[in-house]
Fold each of these.
Amino acid sequence: MNKVYRVKNHKKTPRIYNPITNIKGYFDNISTFGEKPMFVWKESGETKNMNYGEFVEMTKNLTLGVEEKFGKSAGVKIAILGESSPFWFASYLSIIASGNVAVPMDKELSPEAISDFFEFGEIKAVYYSSSFNEMIEGIADGHKTLTDRLPMDSSVSGTNVTSFDCLIKLGESCGREFDADADEERCCELLFTSGTTGTSKCVMLSQRNIFTTVSSCCESVDFSTDDAVMSILPLHHTYELTATYLAGTNYGMKVCINDSLRYILKNLKEFQPTAIVVVPLVINTMYKKILSEAKKGGKDKILPVATKIANALGYVGIDLSEKLFKDVREAFGGRLEKIVCGGAALSPELIPIFEAFGISIYEGYGITECSPLVAVSPYYARKPGSIGPAVNCCEVRIEGLETNDQGYLTGEIQVKGSNVMLGYMNNEEANAAAFTEDGWFRTGDVGYLDKDKYIHITGRMKSVIVLDNGKNVFPEEIEEYLAKIEYIAESVVVGREEGDGTKLVAVILPNYEKYPEMQEADLRAEIQKAITELNKKLPSFKQIHKLDFRKTDFERTTTKKIKRYLVK
């Protein structure tokens, strides 16, 4: 039986927002906020501001410029690459509003991977920030599909280069009125799942997928137009893009953009947000900081007692968070009240602890193929350990035959609704595997629905490893790299809890047949040396942190495939 954590629930209040199903409705909504602050961000050490009216005017002209350059409703695939900024977000909106296809790219990918994805996705143009000027110039030279560069840096020039500012001027002078494409069924966004072009799939989303999910975010989370949310996760991450930027601004919230993970606490103090949308890694880091400061001040033994007292009193309506945890609250800006957490599993015991500080955590669950939201723990009826019921744009069912010790059917979590993708681009085999015969999307996650229809995740059917920072790692990709090391016969990459989070561990069978004369220690040393070199070429979240060696072959199926689930 799972431990039950008691937590205070908040009063249910009317959600004040206008539901939307396409980008036209989104622009209609944000156009009403006028001079209300929309963005605060850092640029070359200086704090910048932009209101809703300025952003809307800029983005409408940018959209017209894109239409002049590439055509209206032409379906041209245009990538976006860069750090989170109002200009990244405006680029994204301009592509969709012009009737073309937006392709957000992970800025941590190598130039080779980005080039391959451009070719795989048939990308014709790319918006990019100044830090990628050199990279994109190199990729564009002789590329098979990329023909146009759209730098956000107006100083960049050259053949087939049209800067962000030039597109705006093109739109201003075109003599046409802004009229956002409202086709809800067409593919308007492509998202690559993590991996190489060999292991990645290209998710196709429609306007209906994206904007009904935005409305579900607004309906499910205790946000309002008076809130200020700090953006921490990368903007290409569909969770951040949907929950923080699209849903947050659809509410009329102010978005404060954090410029580096190193400066989260500094920016929390400066921006003083009321809300953040994060992965568990950020919450764990915040809690470690609280414990560290408590220890420095000699309050580490008092903290757990004060937390229990505050929780008990809060449960009966007495709020002592301001008095008992003034220092903690000030460390996070003094106004932080709400945290939406998703992307990976959160330790449920942290929810009542943060509630004692006066900060409510609401867990969510999603997957890229569902745009990405599937479920959110309601602010008025939370259950720590569950990610809540399905949001109002979809249904969830459990496909399984086993019953757990609580009497609930346990099996694969499957989804049907307006948030479910159009499919994978040019991948009939993957599409066939992703959907059941009666049209439900197979998430690959295992869990159960309790008596209140709350979802509880208990495991995964897929091999994908979800790290604490929300990054997905496909072990097959890492295993492809390991297979090229001559000293390794076979390997299986797994995720293990190692102290401060989930780490990648390579379970390796050395190539004893090829090197029968080599001493065991020497063979392992060569493998370690090769993997050290491999790690230098991989993004930090894909690096192997530990090696486990075995002397016998892996257990296999009758078709000679390794039984991955037996490798722990």
Note: The longest helix spans residues 52-70.
Amino acid sequence: MKLMALDGNSIINRAFYGIRALNAPDGTPTNAVYGFLNILLKLIAEESPDALCVTFDLPGPTFRHEQYDEYKSHRKPMPEELAVQMPIIKEVLDALNIPRYEQSGWEADDILGTLAKKCTDAGCECVIVTGDKDALQLVSDFTRVKHVKSQKGQTITKDYTETAFVEEYGFTPEKMIDLKALMGDPSDNIPGVAGVGEKTAMDLVQRFGGIREIYDGLDALDIKDAVRKKLSAGRENADLSYDLAQIRCDTPVEFVVQDNLRREVDNGEAFAIFRRLGFKSLIEKFGLHPPQSGDTELYPPRVEEEGVGHNIKDIMRERLDRGEDPGEWIFDTALAAYLISPTDSSYDITPPREDLQQKLKELGLERLYYDVELPLCRVLAEMEHTGFLVDKTALTQFGEQLSHMIAATEQDIYDQAGETFNINSPKQLGVILFEKLMLPAPKKTKTGYSTNIEVLDYLSGTHPIIELIKDYRELTKLKSTYADGLLKVIAPDGRIHTKFQMTVTATGRLSSTEPNLQNIPVRKALGGELRKMFISGDGNLLVDADYSQIELRLLAHIADDSIMKQAFAQGEDIHAVTASQVFGVALGDVTPLMRSRAKAVNFGIVYGISAFSLAKDIGVQPYEAKAYIESYLEKYAGVREYMTRIVETAREQGYVETLFGRRRNLPELNAGNFNTRAFGERVALNMPIQGTAADIMKIAMINVSKRLEKTNAKLILQVHDELIAECPKSEAEEIAVILREEMENAATLSVPLVVEARSGKSWYDTK
């Protein structure tokens, strides 16, 4: 069971300052309430929690004020425009049947800590949503913190698991208290140690641990004498600050996880409040309607009879999960807004349906919207509902194998370094690499040396420790993100039910979240092992169908390049043909190295790759890579003309589009900044190709789904250019034919679309 607990004060505060002033018909300020509810809907869509609650501070002193008179003493009072909205949000939450918790003498953070502890004791996952980083100290195996902030007028979130926290801070979450004890917190008036700022405090905690370890060994610490004196003089304040910063998990609040299971909305009460506040769009989003006798609605929103919905795919999925019919739908405001402006960061607030319909018509997007995007919603909802079966035992064993490998690699790194240190700390790693081992150092920044992957790649071959560090990072990511991460999201039916996001990418490609199954590693042997964990049910097989070089085929068609088109029409190896053209040798004389480099050029051209980037990818000098690109464009004249034409056209009309009319605006092409213009040119080259590939895949999914209705097979996953179905063994050959036929016939091009389909017990076996 998953509980999502919101820090009401911090979220409504973010909403108040992040949304322009809004007022109800009677003049009451409403922007904070409106913003809070939109954030709530977004969070529910992202997390799909089983249980939900909100915590609040109450006016008046807390035990911390009694402990320290100056605690939060300098804070300005809440603005009147926000204060009047606090009782309104509580009234709304009550109408939505969302429990709220507040306790006199305690802060909302302490209540969150108590809730997290009780969830842990009950073996439940707790997701804390807050705009305050103080709660990061609560992160644990069972508790994840979802940090909310505003960026360029949009609400964004960042998830902190234990692994994510350690990667960012270089120490474990509970040490956040020690960090605050040393550096203090001006926002809460926590004093900390005088003269010790964030940089020094971070260094101390990363290197030596908490304040207990620091003060117990103060005389022997490898620190400057000035810092030692500050720490010695500030010990009393450090202890006080630790107590003030520590979130208490023993508040007297009465809490039982099951009491917070999501419940039916009081439709009549909620409808009346929303109408009073003038929240017309939220009435629709929450599925509210004028009250009728004995009528209730489940929360989150359900569809009205005519089908006027927002993110309808998610609502259909929820209905399917409850064993209900997904319903008939005629419009999705979020999907329409996305198609009209695919680079927006959020579609929480959309224009009225009538405005969206008119805009779709003006932009020539009606056919794409009604024939592709809307029908796809049901296909995706059913795929999410079905899920992908996982071998939990094998995944657990794989995690244990990775743990042993991580421990061995860690020890090898220590042996090479000649000492133990925190490998996850960029600062400590930088000291080892560039000060102790004296490797060629990149430019030092204010926070220390960079040790990112680009730096490690640059240092490859200079010392054995470099490859070990790269291996360590790959192994820890495999374990935390996949071996451990996937285990946490296996549903009671033994399957993983990913979410397909339809409104995220600017090209129209689908993305996968919670978990992201599109990022399952495949190129390296160890990562590829994960595909063995995704299996078919008893008596079933998986059928995997994959487009062969669809983007290059689209490039040949769109650019109308005769040499490329001929190669594809004759079924030749396009990379070998390119190598033959670029290197000026007969097709039979192409070496594996030539083909490999030609392949990099082929795919690089699609993405507007520079000579410098190509040189880095294939391990040659930039002048050699430049020569390859020039030779390529000389031989493939149609591609060269396309690359010039598409950028010029995009600059003139302000956008590019796919073969099916999907648009992306490109204001970057007329920017004053060179790098911004260069980005716009790369997008202009790539979007028509990648976007058309996305359109073709969506059309194929719809057509495949229709044909599968007469079989016992179900689509279960779409990843990049491949589709996966699960079916009885006896139907595997038939399903492979269906997938291949519908995918190859999803579009008519001047070159053939080719699909390879294979079956197997596991995802790995189909490859």
Note: The chain has 32 helices and 16 strands.
Amino acid sequence: MPAVSIDTTFSRPWATAGVDRATLGWAVVLLFAAGCIGLSGHLPWLASYPETLTLPISDWINRAEDVVVATTKPFFRAIAWLLDHPMSWVRDLLHWLPWPVLMFVGGAVSWRAGGWKLTVFTVLSLGYMLVIGYWEESMNSLSLVAISVPLAVLIGFILGVWAFASRAAERTISPTLDVLQTVPAFAYLLPILILFGFGPVVGLIASVLYSFAPMVRNTLVGLKNVAPDIIDSGLMSGANRRQLFWRVRVPTALRQLLLGINQTTMASLSMVIVASIIGGTSDIGWEVLSTMRKAQFGESLLAGIVIALMAMILDRVTNGLATRHADEEDRSTWYQRNRFWVYVAAGSVAIAVIGRFVPVLVAYPGNWVVSPAGPMNDFITWFVVNFQPAIKEIKRVFLFYAMLPLKIGLDQTVTPFTWGFAWSGYFTAGSVACLLLVAWAGLRRFGTNAAVAIAVAGSMFLFGVTEISWLAFLAVLLMTSWRLGGIRLAIGVFAGLVFLLVSSAWDKTMLSFWLCGIAVVISFLFGSSLGIWAAHNDHVSRIMRPVNDTLQTMPLFVILIPIVMVFKIGEFTALLAIMAYSYVPAFRYAEHGLKNVPHDVVEAARSMGCTPRQLLWRVKLPLALPNIMLGLNQTIMYAIAMLVIAALVGTNGLGQQVYVGLSKGDVGIGLVAGAGMAIIAMMADRMCQAAQRKLEEGKAA
């Protein structure tokens, strides 16, 4: 049956004639890892990396930072002074303009970008900010975005052009962007504070550092993708080098550049709360942070919705401007090219003049403000009180039967108090034997990769992620990277792991790996399952889209509030918070991949008699697997990004070390922990990309 042949082709695309060598290699590695685990109780240096072989990397960073600050502090303080003026001007302008003017301008731009539906959404969203009482705070946040986005776009465009013009520059810029996008923002807040001083400008600098990377990448991609025949046409028309760039390459790549502006805007807005922590400005981010510290769920959620609405407006407006078609009308004169904006300016002036005679149009009356925060807090309290037994049971079962075994192993978790019986050596021997039998069955049925996955996952559950010998973990990870991406990937992974070992960050890394690993597996399975459902049901897709938009644009701090109020502080709460944020990319990529399976392939499979189940498992999923793997990649990235936020609710690991460095004023500790998280993210990214390439090669074959 053709559908069966499709399934065989894509289920194990790298199962080639070399599978016997791979099986032998994995057998050697797994036996070595088993020996390390078995001997770690007798050889302490196998159980934990020797302290004598570590290096004082954090101390070196602190000493280097002292030298840099002593020599460059006046220069950076001057930059802060210069940037403070335009930021203050924009903030004062937004506060001076009457609120109807801003709503009119927002609605007009939205109509230009996306039609009447986007206009209605924008006006209603701005009305929410006004009625809920957060208008001034929203304008303060908008002033930050209004300055940080142009700066980030300018810096990103310049660096993208440089990377396009120079291969050497691209090789330097690309890994730098990886580091900036994977190191938690909190890790580099302390050096920024020391260099630029405390105040709103520090938040501006942090926002620019975080948000310029998407512009660099989109500029590079856009300029590289200009078709050669377009370049040839420009050269034949007599264009010199400068004209060829500004009049041929840039206009052709304009859509990609505008998409870069869209992503830069979203990244900048996502830094609003982080900027509030160090900026001390009374903006919407500070409202979220201050109400969260007071455990005021209603107030923090209402303020968080403001940021989510701002993000949705800016996302849809910038995306609409990037993808809209040019008007067909004649644009020969300046007025014809800009008449829409002339009308907008004239309308704004007219509303401002009318507002001088109608006080309510200048300052929104305070007694018109409506806040449902009280009832929301009462509802959460009622829910916790009435469902406390069920909540405690859910938490207990998941903690004792899943999280703790994966953390410290079954032999340490199984006790009469938790599981109802005591663990013994017979259980260890029996569990290992069962694991070997299941792995052997996986080898016979699905191949080497499945057997290895079963053996590794089972070993983690039996012995615990944090208790497994570092040398065993190193061997398995190196073999995995070599099998996926060859020697270059293996060398990169080895270098990253060595840094984690010699910097004394290994133990904290394993704690982060444990929590993040559980969250990624559950989020990926849950998100992909929902995505598969949504791909086949338009109602589910429509319902889930605003939910996913809200979860991705809602400040990460706000996601913690309801979970903390229901489940209290602890690792289970952190796990739920990570999952709530990181399942979204798995959902979206699974839905996108399945919806974009070629229609003719689906019709061919149906004409051959495939049932809906066969069509899904033997045709659609294999063809959508590269997209689904990209969803796994992004799920890992989102989970790692959430680790720092999850550290606020009682977790241990690299995320907590970032806060330790920030609270102690220790740049070294914070940067080492941040670098550790960046290393984990980059290793996961490269390995997922390598797996995706293998899947695409199998698909092409």
Note: The chain is about 80% helix and 0% strand.
Amino acid sequence: MSYKYFKRDISWLSFNHRVLLEAKDESLPVYERIKFLSIYSSNLEEFYKIRVSGYHSSILKSISRDESEEEALQTLLEINNEVTEQEKEYYRIFNDMILPELEKNNIILYQTDEVEPFHKAFVEKYFNEEVFPFLQPMIIQKDDIHSFIQDDRIYQTISLLKRKKKKNNTEKLRYTYAIMKIPHTKLPRFVELPTFDGKYYIMFIDDVIKANLQSVFPGYEIVDCYSMKISRDADFSLENEDQKDIAERILKKVRKRKIGAVTRFQYDKDMPDYFLKYLCETYEIEEEELLKGGRYLNLAELMKLPNPLGDKLKQKLPQPLRVPELENNNSILNVLRKQDILLHFPYQSFDYLLRFLMQAAFDPKVLEIKVTQYRVAENSAVINSLISAAKNGKKVTVFVELKARFDEENNYLSSELMQQAGIKIIYSLPGLKVHAKLAYVRKRSNDAKEPIKGYAYLGTGNFNEKTARVYSDKGLLTSNKELIQEIDEVFRVLEGKPHIRDFKHLLVAQFNMVAEINRMIEREIENVNNGSEGRIVLKMNSLEDKGMINALYRASEAGVKIDLIIRGICCLVPNQSYSRNIRVIRIVDAYLEHARVWYFYNNGQENVYLTSADWMERNLHRRIEAAFPIYSEKLKREIIDILLIQLQDNTSAAWLNEKLENVFKRDDNPPVRAQQAIYKYLKETTGL
């Protein structure tokens, strides 16, 4: 039988549509819904910079993909058609749902440059004093040198007519065209106007400029003014680069992102054909790069929309819970000598991980600390802890992944800071990204039988205290000897030292991960064939690897019951004869679902793994990833209970069907919103 698969990027668009649907949820406060509009736009911008650029390259035959040139063009057309439909829905939600909801709360967001009489003086004064000095209008002509259009910036394009003393009606109109970038670094996107009659007024800076265009172009009649923006190719590959000077070469490529090839030309859908044609000819825009937008572009900036009523219109998130075992003991390392600790972010405080690192930095018996760095916060508390450790005489090694997309420069700058403090920095491995989230501490012990004791943190998410407030992740603090030994071996791999390849506890990509996953799936199939129950639950961000999907299809055909909680890309097609035992749900809510959890029933001897790895070809075959087992029965039960809560969600969860549609899970059971239920479960379990 021939198996089917969803196209990766069409599947991703289905996920982003699910994000958009949160903006329609009238049970959410209006600024929470606006947040999801912003996230949708931000996601789409990155998608065009990274993923769509590959299709353009394939069409130009400059790179090789799995798809042929014709297939790449067909997929690109599918992408643009789907995005066009989603954007229509986006603006319907914005105009027909969000704006009226704001008005109910006496917040008026102008949708025109026709200013109310009571605001005219303020807007004109604001424009003259705050805006006009930063404007740089330029006349554009097809056959002349014209200004370079930066990516991800809003431009206003204006058509003009020269004013004449006497008009000759028989003379053909000859337009002059100008382009002007909105000075985003100098001005806020939204301007708060004086309140009037108990109402709060906000205006796009776009409209402030449009309302005063005549003073920018004296001697001309303003005919039309429309917004446009360009997305440029921001992808680059260093997969085959060797170690020498890798940091310098990555930085060079990062800085060239701003001048990459065009992947999307977005424009106001009301722009007349004559105007659009002129711009396309002038800037050499191809038809497949054109995408209609609304009056206002770059709406990722809605995240900055002023909120004059504050918390009343926002979703209030609960305070992170405290963990009793760590609250009742001053030393986290002492706690770990007796038991493993499982942390659930952001339900529980990220401070415990920071305390773990800081205590290691100041403990006189700690000899060495090793950490992997993929994405860290700016002014990172994690980096500060490691610098403190180095200054306190500890040997500190940090493996810095410079190829973490859009964080390359931040990672380079933080590594420079660490090097100045005496920390040993090891940069990216040739041909591989290091995505595993590991921290390892070596400490002298008073035990003569075990003079050196090891402690470790293994996580599903980054060492980033800022994203930990909104990303749902899990982390294990442990001193388990078997895990510690194998974590040490992973670091030996990263350091290029001699190492074993026989991992028995950790599942490590490039070594045993794929083989062990297949073995566990086959074991569930065998158990079903022997008359027992077969059960798999997998929670991930993305499922794309065809080898893994085929293994799940075979398990489904054998009768293994499989539940998939996939937030993003899912190339597995449900509701087929070979996937009849597979159910796929998406959960989108206040927190970004980021933890990866693998559960295998194993005839009642349940296996649970946590990991940073998705089942994508890149994670399984081109990265260093680590999946770690949970051996504590108490902690294992905790994870399974949380998985069951997520599977019961009938509020934020949506089924993914065979048409890539998000079908909200609605049933007659009492309403369950998983993220709220998980917080309640952990609060009742921990008591703090």
Note: The CA atoms of residues 539 and 565 lie 5 Å apart.
